Amino acid sequence: MLRWALIFFIIAIVAALFGFGGIAGAATDIARILFFIFIIVFLVSLVLGLARGKSPAP
């Protein structure tokens, strides 16, 4: 998911350089949404992993 956010960010930069403001804005919004979804999924995964805990092997 972070890869897709980075791809849309690069598309937004390239589109802005060529003057396509609408496409650049849309790609930026998509990249921002995907980035925040990635952060939320990462934090939930981190909390669940810490809450689950692992006991040391005997």
Structural description of this entry:
With 58 residues, the chain is mainly α. The protein has one domain. It contains two helices and no strands. The protein has helices at 2-17, 21-52. Helix 1 runs antiparallel to helix 2 (21-52). It is rod-shaped. The mean pLDDT is 84.
* Rg over alpha carbons: 18 Å
Low-confidence stretches: none
Distance between the termini: 37 Å
Order of helices and strands: HH
Please, what is the oligomeric state?
single chain
Mean pLDDT equals 84
Number of domain units: 1
Largest sheet: none
Relative strand content: under 5%
Helix percent reads over 70%
SS class:
mainly alpha
Question: How would you summarize the topology of this molecule?
Answer:
Blueprint: H1 2-17, H2 21-52
Helix pairs in contact: 1-2
Entry keywords:
single chain; 58 residues; mainly alpha; 83% helix; rod-shaped
Brief summary:
By secondary structure, the protein is mainly alpha-helical.
